[in-house]
Automatic annotation (TrEMBL):
Residues 22-44 are annotated as: Disordered. Residues 22-34 have a biased composition (Polar residues). It comes from Paludibaculum fermentans. Keywords: Carboxypeptidase, Hydrolase, Protease, Signal. InterPro entries: Carb-bd-like_fold, CarboxyPept-like_regulatory. This is Carboxypeptidase regulatory-like domain-containing protein.
Length: 584
C-alpha cells in the first residue's frame, strides 16, 4: 500500500511539473528572443545651436502600443543608445537641469518606431535652451552696489504663492546673472543691506540725536516698491533679458511701545515681538530685530519705512501656557507713530462640535485611508486605528505671521474637539473626515455664520465652533466639447479650485462621470493626453483654468455639464501666448 501511495504522489508531482500556473499563451506574457527585439541610437542637441548636450537623461518611453521603457544618459558627444526593446511605437525624450521647459514642464519628445531585429538610428532629440536674466544694481548716484541678493519670483497664477525660481547676488561691479531660467513670466526682487553713504549723514541725524530718519529702500522690485506693482518680466526660450535697478532712499521712523502681562499673569521668559507688514503698499519681506528692555517692558523698532504694520507679542507663563497679545495696528507716515501698548493675555482654546448628517456616521466602518472633505485640504492624518473621526485644522488666514497651523482631533462619541493655544486674529478653518466621505455644509462660530471658512478669534472668547457635515456627494456627469470626436476618449478631467490655494485634482472619470469631487467652486476642463504626453504641473493647470469660467459643484444634486477639453497643441499655444505677454 505504501508503494502505491508513493507512486501516486510521484505521478502527481510529474503531472504538476508539466503544467504551468499560466496556461500556454495565456496570462503570463511570453518573452521575446533577442532576435525579435530592436535597438535605438541618437543624439541630444541644443535646438538653437545644434551643439551636443552631455549628461541629458534620455527616456525611451512606452506608448499605448508597447509596454517597455528604457533609460539612458547622453555622452560627451550627446550620443545615446539602448537595446532589448520590443517592437512598437515609442516616445524618445530628454531632460537636463540646464534646459528646463516652459513653466518648468518637461520638453516634448520624438516619436519613433522600433522594428524587430532592427536598429533605429539617427534619432535627433532637441532641447530648447533656457533663458537668462542679467542686470546691475546701482545707488542713487549711479555707483554699483555689491552683495545685494536677487530673487526670481514666478508671477502668481492663483492658488498658493509659487516658490522662488532662482537666486543670485551682485558682484563688486553691481552685476548679477541668473542662468537656466525656465521660460515663464517673473518679477525680480532685490534686497540690499548697505548703509547710506557719508554725504547723507545730515539726512539721517534727527532733532533728538542720532536717530535714523532715512535709509535705503531695503527691498525693491523692477520699477516698483512691492510685488503688487512690480513689472512683469517675460523670459522666452533662449532669450537674455537685461535689467537695471537703482536703489532709492526712503524716509523712516522708529516705532516705540510697551509690553506688559495682564493682571494676575506673568511671563517666564522674555516675550518675542514681531513687526508684520500689512497692505499692498508696505514692503512685504521685512524681518526686523526688536529691541526689548525686560525690566521696563519697553521696546522699539528702528528704521521702519512708511506703511501699515501690525505688532504681536507672545511668550509663555510658568506653566508653559501661551501668552499672546492682540495685534497692535501701526501706520508709519510722515510723522512718528504714537506709542504702542501691548498686553499679554492667556491664549484662547477653541471649543467646538461636528454634527453628522445621520447618527451612524461617527461609528461607520473606517475606510482604509482618510477622506478629504474639501479639495486640497490638509494631508490625511491618522488611520483606521486612530481614536477620532476627523481632524480640525486652524491655519492663520494671513500667511507670513508668527503663528503656525494648529490641529485638533474630533471625538467619535460626541463629535467634540478642542484646540488650545489659539492667538487672537483671523484663522482659516478646515475639517477632514477620516471615516467616510463628507463635506462641510455650514459653520457657525458663536451666534454668527462663518463665511469663507474664516473665524475671528478674540481674547477670552467663549464662542463655540459648530460644523455641520453632509455625506450626500455630488452626482456629476459631463461631456467634453470643443475637441474632435476622436480625441474625446483620450481627455482627462481636471478640477482647479477657484480662489483657493488648494492643489488641482485629476478626476479619474468613467463614462463621463466626475466621481470623487467634493462640493465647491472649480475651473473644470479636460486635457488631451497624447502618446507619451507630458504631464502638466500645477502652474500649467492654473493657467488653463483661467481660460474657462468657474462652476459650482453642489452636493446631493444631479448636474450635467459641458466641459471644454484642450487639445495638446492648444495647450502649447496657450503657454506660448502667456509667456509672450498675453494677460490671460
Amino acid at each position: 500500500m505504501q508503494r502505491w501511495l508513493l507512486a501516486l504522489c510521484l505521478c502527481a508531482i510529474a503531472v504538476r511539473g508539466q503544467t504551468s500556473a499560466y496556461p500556454a499563451n495565456q496570462g503570463r506574457p511570453q518573452s521575446q528572443p533577442p532576435s525579435e527585439r530592436g535597438s535605438v541610437s541618437g543624439r541630444v542637441v541644443d535646438a538653437a545651436t545644434g551643439e551636443p548636450i552631455a549628461g541629458a537623461r534620455v527616456t525611451i518611453g512606452r506608448t499605448a502600443k508597447t509596454d517597455s521603457t528604457k533609460l539612458a544618459t547622453s555622452d560627451s558627444a550627446g550620443g545615446f543608445s539602448a537595446g532589448g526593446l520590443p517592437p512598437g511605437i515609442y516616445i524618445v525624450s530628454a531632460a537636463h537641469s540646464e534646459y528646463p521647459g516652459a513653466l518648468n514642464l518637461a520638453q516634448e519628445g520624438t516619436r519613433i518606431e522600433v522594428r524587430a531585429g532592427k536598429e533605429t538610428t539617427a534619432i535627433a532629440v532637441s532641447l530648447k535652451p533656457a533663458g537668462t536674466i542679467t542686470g546691475v544694481v546701482l545707488n542713487d548716484g549711479g555707483e554699483p552696489l555689491s552683495q545685494c541678493g536677487v530673487a526670481l519670483l514666478p508671477v502668481p497664477l492663483g492658488g498658493a504663492v509659487p516658490p522662488e525660481a532662482g537666486r543670485g547676488s551682485t558682484d563688486d561691479k553691481g552685476r548679477f546673472r541668473l542662468e537656466s531660467v525656465a521660460p515663464d513670466r517673473y518679477s525680480l526682487v532685490v534686497t540690499c543691506e548697505q548703509d547710506l553713504p557719508a554725504e547723507h549723514i545730515l539726512d539721517i541725524v534727527g532733532p533728538n540725536g542720532f536717530e535714523p530718519q532715512e535709509t535705503w529702500q531695503r527691498t525693491f522690485y523692477q520699477n516698483g516698491t512691492t510685488r503688487s506693482d512690480a513689472v512683469e518680466i517675460s523670459v522666452a526660450s533662449g532669450a537674455e533679458v537685461s535689467l537695471e535697478f537703482q536703489l532709492r532712499s526712503v524716509p523712516v521712523h522708529t516705532i516705540r511701545g510697551t509690553v506688559t502681562p495682564a493682571p494676575g499673569l506673568s511671563w517666564s521668559t522674555a516675550p518675542e515681538i514681531r513687526l508684520i507688514p500689512e497692505g499692498p503698499d508696505t514692503e512685504d519681506s521685512l524681518e526686523w530685530t526688536d529691541y526689548l528692555n525686560v525690566e521696563t517692558g519697553t521696546f522699539r523698532f528702528e528704521m521702519i519705512p512708511r506703511g501699515a504694520y501690525s505688532l504681536t507679542a507672545w511668550t509663555t507663563d510658568q506653566f508653559g501656557r501661551l501668552l499672546v497679545s492682540e495685534a497692535g495696528k501701526v501706520v508709519v507716515g510722515p510723522a512718528a507713530p504714537p506709542l504702542v501698548q501691548l498686553q499679554l493675555r492667556m491664549s484662547t482654546t477653541v471649543l467646538g462640535k461636528v454634527e453628522w448628517p445621520d447618527a451612524g456616521a461617527a461609528t461607520a466602518a473606517p475606510a482604509s485611508a482618510g477622506q478629504r472633505i474639501r479639495p486640497g485640504g490638509v494631508p490625511p492624518m491618522g488611520s483606521a486605528r486612530t481614536a477620532s473621526v476627523g481632524i480640525l485644522t486652524l491655519t492663520p488666514a494671513r500667511p507670513g505671521g508668527p503663528f503656525t497651523t494648529l490641529t485638533g482631533r474630533v471625538s467619535p462619541q460626541e463629535g467634540s474637539f478642542q484646540i488650545p493655544g489659539v492667538a487672537p486674529g483671523r484663522w482659516l478653518v478646515r475639517y477632514e473626515q477620516l471615516q467616510r466621505p463628507a463635506w462641510v455644509e455650514s459653520m457657525q462660530y458663536g451666534e454668527a455664520p462663518v463665511g469663507n471658512q474664516e473665524i475671528e478669534v478674540t481674547p477670552d472668547s467663549t464662542a463655540i465652533l459648530k460644523i455641520r457635515t453632509n455625506s450626500k456627494l455630488p452626482n456629476l456627469q459631463f461631456e467634453f466639447v470643443d475637441i474632435a470626436a476622436a480625441a474625446k476618449s483620450n481627455c482627462a478631467l481636471h478640477a482647479v479650485p477657484f480662489g483657493d490655494g488648494s492643489p488641482s485634482r485629476l478626476i479619474h472619470s468613467d463614462a463621463g462621470r466626475g466621481d470623487g469631487l467634493m462640493p465647491g467652486r472649480y475651473h473644470l476642463f479636460g486635457v488631451e493626453q497624447p502618446e507619451g504626453g507630458v504631464s502638466l504641473n500645477e502652474r500649467a493647470l492654473r493657467l488653463l483654468g483661467r481660460q474657462v469660467k468657474p462652476v459650482e459643484v453642489v452636493g446631493g444634486r444631479d448636474q450635467t455639464l459641458n466641459v471644454r477639453c484642450f487639445a495638446a497643441e492648444e495647450v502649447q499655444k496657450i503657454i506660448h501666448h502667456y509667456i509672450a505677454g498675453d494677460p490671460r
